[in-house]
UniProtKB/TrEMBL annotation:
Pfam families in alphabetical order: Aminotran_4 (PF01063)
Broad class of enzyme this protein falls into: transferase
Keyword field: Aminotransferase, Transferase
Known EC number: 2.6.1.42
Coiled-coil portions: none
Family that this chain belongs to: Belongs to the class-IV pyridoxal-phosphate-dependent aminotransferase family.
Protein name, per record: branched-chain-amino-acid transaminase
Catalytic activity annotation: L-leucine + 2-oxoglutarate = 4-methyl-2-oxopentanoate + L-glutamate; L-isoleucine + 2-oxoglutarate = (S)-3-methyl-2-oxopentanoate + L-glutamate; L-valine + 2-oxoglutarate = 3-methyl-2-oxobutanoate + L-glutamate
Any GO BP annotation: carboxylic acid biosynthetic process
InterPro entries assigned: Aminotrans_IV (IPR001544), Aminotransferase-like (IPR036038), BCAT-like_C (IPR043132), BCAT-like_N (IPR043131), Class-IV_PLP-Dep_Aminotrnsfr (IPR050571)
Amino acid sequence: MQEKDIVFLDGEFLHKNEAKVSDFDSVFTFADLVEVAPVMFGVLVYKNEFFARLKRSLEAEFVDFVFNEDELEENLQKLIEKNSLKEGFLYFKVSKGVSSKDFDLVEWFEPIIMAYVYEYKIENNPLVKSGVTIILLPEIQWKKIYKKSGSFAARCYAQKMITKAKAYDGFFVENDYIAYSLNSSVFIIKDKNLIAKPLPNDKILSFASELGLKVDERAFSMQDVYNADEVFIYAASLPTLPVVKVDERLINSGEVGEFSKKLMQRYIQNMQDEARKSKYFAL
């Protein structure tokens, strides 16, 4: 996976080697926000969900970045076109701006925005057919409170453990329950029940209902994962990625499950339908 050459930085389209931010930008000193959206047929899809998540994150992070959805969509679409991207995903980052390392969030300078895109197979991704391996990790995000660092330090440490284990992702475990996944949301299916921690993802819940699955929003344990008929993870860049192995235990005898396949097919169909309805669709 490789990012494309052109980025969008504070209203300008620049080559990635020319995009510069201050050493004192809050993205380096604090954990600022990132949102992701898929691209299909050269079009930014699920834009409404993307904007809703972005607004929610901005409010939660006390970031005073007010934007016009149509104007921002137009600029992001230009970014996609300048990179000749047909399929993949877009990263959108917002920092609180340049400031001294002051934990008082009242007075910030102008927020800085940056966006860039990756080329990535969504429709014919081989991992969807093979499934992926997951490892279990101790919850470390807040355990090492003595260690001062900004942003994704704990996640980078976790990613090293995942790479060393030759796995795709990791589930953080706390008190024998799945706290969260490093890069995605976790779902399990048992006896035609889709079980997940409560999350604002109406599409996946709607698609599950269409397939005859009953939705059960609750926390679940490691044992629930081991005993599940199917396990899959969801991310904006690649929805419904089947999990066939967790640590050394096979899920569904190591085979991709029926509902995981159908959910991914439904997502692909829905993405393509959304792309075709966009005014930027050009195929």
